[in-house]
Amino acid sequence: MKKILLVFGTRPEAIKMAPLVKALQKDTEHFETRVCVTAQHRQMLDQVLEVFGITPEYDLNIMAPNQDLYDITAKVLLGLREVLKDFRPDTVLVHGDTTTSMAASLAAFYMQIPVGHVEAGLRTYNMLSPWPEEMNRQVTDRICTYYFAPTEQSKVNLLQENIDAKKIFITGNTVIDALLMAVDIISTTAGVKEKMAKELQEKGYTVGDREYILVTGHRRENFGDGFLHICKAIKELAALHPEMDIVYPVHLNPNVQKPVYELLSGLSNVYLISPL
């Protein structure tokens, strides 16, 4: 039996790792699985854990007001030292490009524990865009042993960096599995649809008979032209599909609000609401 430790700390990581957590937990014949959260994003992380029914065995609870990348890196390294000594996993699994993933990979490396990188091989080759994510994922890929690439291009990127092809596995993106899991939870769990409708109504959109699309977008690398293109695409979709509503919880950052409200305000089937 292999001992697997999954480490993540943000809401996006939790969403994309949830299907893997559930799959490993089901296979008790081959795996002893434990989850360690760093809580780099405390409240948003806990929301996802509740939805997918995941209870971490370890919680570093590192979130603090005004902390910076130095704080996150140091806390994850020191916190995981004790977790790794306690569990002694055969493999540590991390996800994507967060500071949690980079620091967790380094912590495992210091104990000579193999690391598997879910969503490996994504690249811009510009260390400042996205920052610090591009450096985080490149450092993680230098450390890890197993590469779970979401696309063929991700594999090509890794091969061009002289990564052994035998260590690269094209898996697709686990966010699709998470989406299917969420649809099943919404469809089969009493009260979930009603809770969602109530929250949307409180934010400014009343769910009725019309189908609707929920939009999200706020990453800083999209500021400027990126958001202009996104908003123009949403505007075109709204015009092409007047029978559908588009609901956009708009991030509070002014770099997001300005193009969104300039281009999308006043459209009859586009609802700009406060963040969920």
From TrEMBL:
Domain of life: Bacteria
Keyword Secreted: no
Keywords: Isomerase
Domain UDP-N-acetylglucosamine 2-epimerase: 24-276
CDD domains according to UniProt: GTB_UDP-GlcNAc_2-Epimerase
Listed GO MF terms: UDP-N-acetylglucosamine 2-epimerase activity
InterPro entries per record: UDP_GlcNAc_Epimerase_2_dom, WecB-like
EC number(s) stated in the UniProt entry for this protein: 5.1.3.14
One Pfam family, short name: Epimerase_2
SUPFAM superfamilies the record matches: UDP-Glycosyltransferase/glycogen phosphorylase (SSF53756)
Primary enzyme class: isomerase
UniProt record similarity statement: Belongs to the UDP-N-acetylglucosamine 2-epimerase family.
Protein name: UDP-N-acetylglucosamine 2-epimerase (non-hydrolyzing)
